[in-house]
Task: inverse folding
């Protein structure tokens, strides 16, 4: 460990794990891999597992009794589904045991400046999510947008009652950037969180995004990130359970 790497307290280490949404969104990942990923996330005490929609019941069963939430995606990864389809996806996911939903905006509407349609869709899905006891993250796919569009989306998400604004899917032309997190934190209203996602591969990147205002980060290299945090905090490594 380099002398220049910051040491962490035990509380800060727990905070690192508590802001990770462990991503299990590879469409080729089979049941055994999904189960292993859910168990890892449970043992590492992350915020949530963001899993492919068909596996939500499996994830919810594995995480039952833990504080790790089950989350999944809506309109993923392109956002091009109809609003009716997104609503059906949201309601199905909540019924299957999800408590957090990550929905992709309709990028064509955003780029066309169809702001009423954008707001109506986000508002309807936020309402359905909250009615079902869940929380909603809205994914912008910032690499496709200019700053004015990102700012307008932050305002719309606040008015619609979204719980987080999120930088990207991780499957688009670019991932989270420091500038975008600063911009989103500045323009998202108080009470609306910021999630950085796409390309967050190590602890220092996560800590940087947290310092800029992100309170959640999507990551697939969860074990490496949390293990490094524990090393810097002088804590023993986590031993994962088999089941």
Result:
């Amino acid at each position: 460990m380099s002398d220049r790497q910051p040491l962490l307290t035990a509380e800060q280490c727990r905070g690192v794990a508590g802001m990770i949404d462990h991503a299990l969104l590879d469409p080729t990942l089979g049941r055994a891999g999904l189960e292993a990923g859910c168990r890892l996330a449970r043992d590492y005490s992350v915020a949530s597992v963001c899993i492919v929609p068909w596996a939500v019941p499996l994830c919810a069963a594995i995480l039952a009794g833990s504080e790790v939430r089950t989350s999944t995606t809506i309109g993923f990864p392109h956002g091009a589904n109809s609003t009716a389809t997104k609503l059906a996806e949201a309601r199905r996911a909540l019924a299957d045991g999800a408590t957090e939903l990550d929905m992709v905006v309709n990028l064509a509407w955003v780029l066309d400046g169809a702001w009423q349609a954008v707001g109506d869709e986000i508002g309807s899905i936020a309402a359905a999510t909250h009615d079902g006891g869940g929380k909603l993250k809205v994914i912008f796919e910032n690499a496709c947008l200019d700053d004015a569009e990102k700012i307008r989306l932050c305002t719309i998400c606040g008015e619609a009652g979204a719980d987080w604004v999120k930088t990207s899917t991780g499957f688009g032309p670019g991932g989270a950037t420091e500038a975008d997190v600063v911009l989103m934190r500045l323009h998202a209203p108080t009470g609306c969180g910021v999630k950085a996602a796409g390309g967050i591969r190590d602890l220092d990147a996560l800590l940087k995004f947290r310092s800029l205002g992100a309170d959640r980060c999507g990551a697939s290299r969860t074990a490496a990130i949390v293990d490094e945090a524990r090393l810097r905090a002088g804590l023993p490594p986590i031993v994962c359970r088999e089941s």
Remarks:
- DSSP finds ten helices and eight strands in the chain.
- The CA atoms of residues 140 and 153 lie 8 Å apart.
- Residues 115-131 form the longest helix (17 residues).
- The domain at 10-232 is CATH 3.20.20.70 (TIM Barrel).
